[in-house]
Amino acid sequence: MCGIIGYIGSRKASEVLTEGLKRLEYRGYDSVGIAVLNDKKLEIRKDVGMIEDVSTTLQFTNIEGNIGIGHSRWATHGVVCKENAHPHFNTRKTIVAVHNGVIENFTKLKNDLIEKGHEFTTDTDSELIPHLVEENAKSQSLLKAFMKSVRQLEGSYAIVALSTEDKEERIFLARKNSPLVIGVGKGEMFCASDIPAMLKYTKTFVPLQEGDLAVLTKHGYKVYSVDGSETTRKQITVDWNIEMAQKCGYPHFMLKEIFDQKHFINESLAADVDSAKSIIDEYEKIDIIACGTSYHAGLLLSYLLSEKGKISQAFIASDYPFIAKPNEKTLIIAISQSGETADVLQALRYAEKSRKIAITNTVGSTITRISDSIIYLNTGPEVGVAATKTFTAQLAVIYKLIYGKKKLAELPKLIELMLKLENQIKKIAVKLAGKEHAFFIARGKNVPIAYEGSLKFKEITYIHSEAYPGGELKHGTLSLITDGVPLIALAPKDDTIPKLFGNIKEAKARGAMIVGLTNDEDVKKESNFVIELPEIDPILYPFALIIPLQLLAYHVSVLKGINPDRPRNLAKSVTVE
Ligand code: M6R
Asked: Does ligand 1 have an atom closer than 6 angstroms to the CB of 337?
């Protein structure tokens, strides 16, 4: 979940690394650091804090040199402090490394190295990497020592390292269960955890595969399999541009990405779903696996598939191996915007006998390599930690899969219409910003949207929030509904309204402050605040509902002085289990 960047070429490495780390910060933002090689010496600067502040205070871009590596941390081993920030180095400061992942056998390896005289100064598992390479390099070339070290590691890793004692100028790479992509330039090479960090310089990339090792020089790259034999990996070209990874005048990425939806929805609707559709037709039993926001999209997909007569269930990916027994007769649909979520990948590996369809936004991601058919979201990079446009895009491709594109002709206009409600939503946000709790209710196919609205709300406002099918309130939660507690009711005029209306009244009778997302006159009368829904084909209500909920979460977050792009303790891409 950390962000990694590396550069070798003729540019000032410190500038490329600093720029790249700004694009990668969504992956982790506890602490940040860079190491640049200049004249056979390493200049390492790192500290706790955000890239913008740390790079200014420590004057990152003053460092001279054309080779370097950088890291933005999301702590796993060891508290957040300067020492534990990456890059890490050996005692002689001749080898430096950045790491994303968790080294599971680090205690044993570290103890062995201590016995051999290595001195450790941090609590991290990552620090052992430069020590291990140094130890192995005593008896063999640096490349072989790096390869041997990587083979000794158990767990997950993306590693980028370099040495002052390397006779050639090289950067060493390794990946297993953590993403790492090579960026191919002319007379310069890049590597990073994610493509947006390199978009300013190149559009040609080589995603490394599980177990790959690689070496970058200024003039090219070589990829090796885990056994050390040279291998080839496919180059990909992306049509993303740098503006897609910039705020473009918006105060936050999240707001930009919410508004992006009106542009990208057509791209998502153009997604190729034909091959997935014919695979789905062959199966009766379909398991859906995903996490967080993607799970909510998966839940809706399971409802729609069940409606079509399939036996379908959505599973939280991390729990899938504990409760499901997939076999050759089970089709798996995995949903992951990043395509790198560790919980999803391990669930996919668990379902080894089953055929797999992936729904993802990320070309070249791991999920695309272990699936039989892929549906791309086509919605451009999403930088804000809170998923917004990718959720809507997931719904769009799911709907296309189930209903066909014709039924969705009104969708782009609907999204524009809902975005126009921003000013009205801002006023409601003021009423919610001081609250401690919030409850979201809906029924039927709107329930996954209530879950998603509640997740969005809690993750960026830090207000405790829960979501339920309306009928569940009376089975326990109603005891928490007292004077002024917000109840956000997703109440479009569809088949769910008669029952949901009863639930709204129950809550109102106990003093709840009702925010009604509705076009029903009775619900409006019960609501303290109304977010007006248009009269549309009822199948489209989930799209009409999610956009105001994204805007509501965003504006409450901003009113509370929180940076919605970087909520505490979270990272965009969750590459640890
Ligand atoms: O990349 P994925 O879709 O697999 O990510 C899964 C979750 O971590 C993600 O959806 C998360 O819940 C959202 N960023 C929350 O807004």
From this structure: yes
